[in-house]
User: Fold this.
Amino acid sequence: MKNFLLSLVFLTVLPATNAQVATEYSISFDNAVHHEAEVRATFKGLKTGEVEFRMSRSSPGRYALHEFAKNVYNVRVTDGKGRSLKTSRPDPYAWRVKGHDGTVHLQYTLFANHGDGTYAQIDETHAHLNIPATFMYMPGLSQKAIEVTFEVWEDLDWKIATQLKHLGGNTYYAKDLQHFMDSPTEISDHSRRSFQVGDQTINFVLHHKGTEAEFDTYFEKVKKIVWQQEAVFGELPRFDHGAYTFLACYMPQVAGDGMEHRNSTVCTSTRNLGDPGFDTNIGTVTHEFFHAWNVERLRPASLEPFDFENANMSGELWFAEGFTSYYAGLILCRAGLISREGYLKWLSGSFNYVWNSTGRQFFNPIEMSYQAPFVDAAESVDDVNSGNTFISYYNYGHKLALALDLALREQNLTLDGYMEHLWNTYGKKEVPYTLQDLHTSLNTYAGRKFGDAFFERYIHKSEMPDFERLFGSVGVAMGPKDKGVFLGIALKDQKIATYPALGSPAYKAGLTKGDKILRLGAVELSEASKLRELLEPYAPNDKVPLTYERFGEIRETTVEFRKNPDYSLSLFEKKGVEPSEKAKKRRDEWFRAKPMVGHR
Assistant:
């Protein structure tokens, strides 16, 4: 009787679970050494008439277009009875078929050899799969469930790591296309570490050439990051299936990248844990995990729903990416993974980039965010003047977050408090926000006068905050970096490698990218000449003759040097100045670790 009842339950529940599955995939890697996979798909329950399947042109977390269809060939289509179906091509990304019997079987070969957060890579060490770059899909079935089976190389000890729901064996499940496309998968002989945060599991999957002891040490750093980020918002997000997974691939053949997803993130780097400079890998970890709150759940309405056929544009990336970048570094400091002095040194690089950029003459932070489809891993064959007109919304938003945090601390408030307010209002409830919602929330948290001034001056316009005063309020000195001069170009093999900075001495002297500098003052240049060494003898306001070659002609001009506009950041004490007790208290509250959430 018990067996009968169990069978009845099985028959009742299982069809309900699988009834909505309209797309089934399988993927195999027999020709991995040549970077190929064979993909098979079955689309079921189709209406009569013509249907379309296609490759995506975008990928979750990216804002530019990507031509994934170029890596697909050997496309074969049959109906449910195995009869061959002829396809037509309405555009480079889509295939259409008609005359089917309600089922379409699709098979194709995928070439994949770019391992990062957007594309796919297949070789004898792993199958690194970003789903939009791997699987064709049928838009008409986007609301229905999907199953995928990964046919792995078991003799190589390949294991599957993904945020997809595990059904058993090598088969996984997504409730719809949005969740499927958002679920990168790493298949390799990887290592795994896990720890519990409350009733949820944080996994770190690592495909690398290092030692297990190195991984253990690294994983302890990851734990500290998770705990400090949780402390900002007061809780972890509720992850689907109760788990979050870092998919890290630190291998020589990948491209450095990081890409956030709802319950996982991709982190790729050519630096292994034992290599010089591997500590930079942890910067990607802290940035991408912060996205589990800020962008995945605390999400701009402009990115909902994500469009797989067109570029995805948002005017809120200065907040979604920029504020995340701010916390990425600050969390490393709070977690004790970099010193306060180290954090300020790291901060000064991006600070000078934003502070000295001429891009603010053309675009405010919202408009900079609109540039994402042209710069976010996008490629152009023609030259662009972005060095003069564009400021990365990562860095621009980072500096706005910094300014807002320090200004709030003057009011005995914090950016942590504002972020937690936004989380409780929008992110926790997964209600997409608008730009006006960010503004209104700051007014609610810090007062209308404060919020209106911040958004009017720094978001809708492109003014720069009074950073010298703001830094001083936390005992940080902002001073000239050095006494050198500024020319406004980069030099490589005697040639100007960048368009001169707008209004710089090189710009005013009529120089441009591609000019070959032959002589500066009395010094003849060679391909080994270093610009910094060439500028050392000069002082601001010096006027120096310069000889250069353009279009095969020798020309002469005069440059008038300017003072180096870069600033350095350091603790007051390093400058021999004792900060006030109030400034030291604010600085300590800014930098020190936050108490961990009470369930640990």
In short: Residues 77 and 106 are 5 Å apart (CA to CA). DSSP finds 18 helices and 29 strands in the chain. Confidence is low (pLDDT under 50) at residues 1-19. The first strand starts at residue 21 and ends at 28.
